[in-house]
Amino acid sequence: MTTLAIEEKVVYQRPESLSNVPTHYCPGCTHGIAHRLVAEVLDELGVRARTIGVSPVGCSVFAYKYFNVDNVVAAHGRAPAMATGIKRVKPNHVVFTYQGDGDLAAIGLAEIVHAATRGENITTIFINNAIYGMTGGQMAPTTLPGQRTTSSPTGRDLELTGFPVRMAELIAGMAGTAFVARRSLHNVKEINRAKKAIRTAFEVQIAGLGFAMVELLSSCPTNWNLSAPEALQWIEDYMVPYYPLGDYKVIESVQALTKR
To answer: 54 in helix, strand or coil?
Structure first.
């Protein structure tokens, strides 16, 4: 009897920048995918040892548990202000904020706008799931027209609450921004595109070119009252039409950077 030798090859392994701990996120939540992409980029750029993350209140607060880098927790909405101070004191470190829409686009709106206006040399990863995920599924600044939440049970009323905020478009208009992009995490193609944008955002900081932000459309099956597959489809059917994917600002020096 002949025994066949089977050679096994490692095709993927956990990034060094990602801690080896169980996740607490709800089934189908794409926060975990966003974490993996950021961790892979930090590893590939070789900056893990000099990276500092800033995570504020919300589901994003647990970033300190998952990223194997130095991390500080900021007050609700204040991550850009804390990141600004850290970067100015430690300019050779890579500093990033990891923020949700209830944090960045609501209580922290002024912070992110002024960080972008000043052209702070930091990177922001912005998770947009169109709802307050941690505190009970209330309406957020990014909640879609007619979308039902615990605080808008009949759907978002535009006459009462106004329109959802398109953050990528807003931040792209700030003079200090170097790179702003919106991507999605609802399928493999878009996940791959998201990673490229995240890498560019960190390369912008390393090159000292100014403020960079990547907005990621993300799912929240629990608060959307959908299954995990339904939530991914909901992103494609409803979020992408209102929040078009693409690059919203790429200054000339960033264009040269991405062509290398």
So the answer is: strand
